[in-house]
Amino acid sequence: MEPLDRRGFLALGGAGLICTIAGHQISADDGQVNVEKLAREVPVPPKVAAAEWRGDEPARRQLAAFATSSSAVREYWIAAEPMDWNIVPTHRDQMMAERVKEGKTKFKAYGYRPYSPGFKSPLAPARVPGPLLEAEVGDTVVVHFRNRTGAPVTMHPHGIFYANEMDGTYKGKWT
């Protein structure tokens, strides 16, 4: 067997990534996931279970309580939606400065779409990465999120402090 050059190695790695995610084979672009079954298999984090048991007020009011009197509450309405994603819209390989040869450049993906308050109307098309959320130091950011994909998805902000329980995913016992 011949050794792989850089391009061959990246092609093999890309094929492996496209064919599997976290060790699970992807069935098709339009495959549905049983969200209820997955949710039953995920243990509830202790802090979340305790908050539900105590009947604590909704997270929005809890988060707003941390804001100072001079800070603003910035609210965003975002939905995860299926979309066609063109991974090479310019038909140019920017790294190699070459035109992309014929092949599939559009794929089914999930993108994040901003909406007007109350999810009344879309403000922009769904895209990857999602919309920019703007805030000042001390502001409270409240995100209203709807999953319209049929698969379990979440959001992850960068540059914002929040508790692990608000991340949209269970961290597990070893993290």
Count the beta strands: 7
**CATH T-level fold name:** Immunoglobulin-like
Low-confidence stretches: 19-29
- Overall mean confidence score, pLDDT: 73
Q: Count the helices. How many?
A: 4
- Give the assembly state of these chains: single chain
Note down, in words, how this protein is organized.
- The protein is of the alpha+beta class and 175 residues long.
- It has one domain: Immunoglobulin-like (Sandwich).
- 21% of the residues lie in helices and 23% in strands.
- The chain has helices at residues 6-19, 35-41, 46-54, 59-65; strands spanning 20-21, 24-25, 73-86, 92-93, 98-99, 106-115, 140-147.
- Strands 6-3-7 form a three-stranded mixed sheet. Strands 1-2 form a two-stranded antiparallel sheet.
- A hairpin with a 4-residue loop joins strand 4 and strand 5 (98-99).
- The longest helix is centred in the N-terminal third of the chain and has 14 residues, at 6-19.
